[in-house]
Records
---
Amino acid sequence: MGELTPAAGGGPKRIAVIHGPNLNLLGTREPGIYGAGTLEEINRRLAAAAAEFGAVCECFQSNGEGELVSAVQRAALADGVILNAGAYTHYSIALRDAVAASAAPVVEVHLSNIHAREAFRHVSVIAPVCRGVIAGFGADSYLLALRALVGRV
Ligand code: DQA
């Protein structure tokens, strides 16, 4: 992912989409929970919706905590960040600190409703420093976050 700079007056809004660990496996990973769609499909839907809203999405996935911290840092000047930190949501203080330091509004998303699952998923250490949280709507969680960040809610 390149360095995202703020939209120059009137330019498209730049939204960074950051996917965490195991989300590269979507499509085959526990489809009963996460659905049959792939990460590529989510990224394609986001790109199409962004184009409608006069925005652009830059998508990045990593299984590594440090790489995700770096991605959040690079996105500090974006107009918004959509972050699904996967399991790191529940315990990564490093990612929380990166989000807290970011000038960009960050929306935490989850495909599944983490509050309806195991107790260890009920806590997000990142949510308190996010602009908002959307969980439980499958791939639509990402689309809803995009709408929120481009002011189309
Ligand atoms: C997830 C929920 C997390 O608890 C889990 O570890 C994931 C995916 C979701 O999108 O529903 O990897 O973030």
---
Amino acid sequence: MPEPSPTVAVVTGAARGIGAATARRLADDGLHVAVLDLDERAAKATADTIATRGGVAVGVGADVSDTDAVTGAVARIARELGPPTVLVNNAGITRDNLLFKMADADWDAVMGVHLRGAFLMTRAVQHHMVDAEWGRIVNLSSTSALGNRGQANYSTAKAGLQGFTKTLAIELGKFGVTANCIAPGFIASDMTRATAERIGVPWEQYVQDRAKAIPVQRAGQVDDIAQAVSFFVDRRSGFVSGQVLYVAGGPRG
Ligand code: NAP
């Protein structure tokens, strides 16, 4: 009997943070992983780390909000690794400000990466899933979807991703594809470090203060999110679709 072909996953924004942890975890789970990020060199460095751990990965540079870049990247991944049937829409940015000070460009940039990016990536990858009659889509939302001061743009995008996910679950379910959302609470990463810096609070102090407000009394780690992604991607999770899982150390962090 020939070996079944390995499952190919694309993780966006995977050069660092939650995306890199997710790429490592999916590789540990036996998937072949495309590490996609803005900076191809950084993406390749993460892919190399996976390879040194015995996994199979390629690093691909692309801006998820650029249609041509997305089309080219997905075609390249299909050529180099095989048709992708797992997609983790993780790439993200913040451009925080109170509403009255928020610039048009900050609104558009956040919508561009989170919403347009997830849309373009999913549209480009879905036909591989439909052809395979199997697929897994995991979108990164946030507890900010419930509302967060200074994040009118980000919370809107993260709430939008929840609606996007539920619609994907409805449209693609008959092709064996599930779509789910993970809404992390406070996770220690470069993104949250940048927030601490912006408001002028030392990182250790910031983590301690945030942890006090979290029921399990600690900050989340990137592997906490990778664990949840691994669950949704698992072949045995096929009856779980259209869901939003808050991974926040409590009901909403
Ligand atoms: P991070 O450390 O800032 O990493 C985000 C990655 O996305 C970076 O490598 C970044 O590349 C990449 N990226 C940004 N724009 C991109 C684009 N247009 N195309 C391709 N890649 C792009 O963030 P993180 O904390 O790991 O967060 C990952 C996801 O989880 C995000 O969607 C975030 O909103 C969500 N999330 C995070 C937290 C948290 O507490 N950390 C909580 C809730 C939700 P560059 O480095 O080149 O900019």
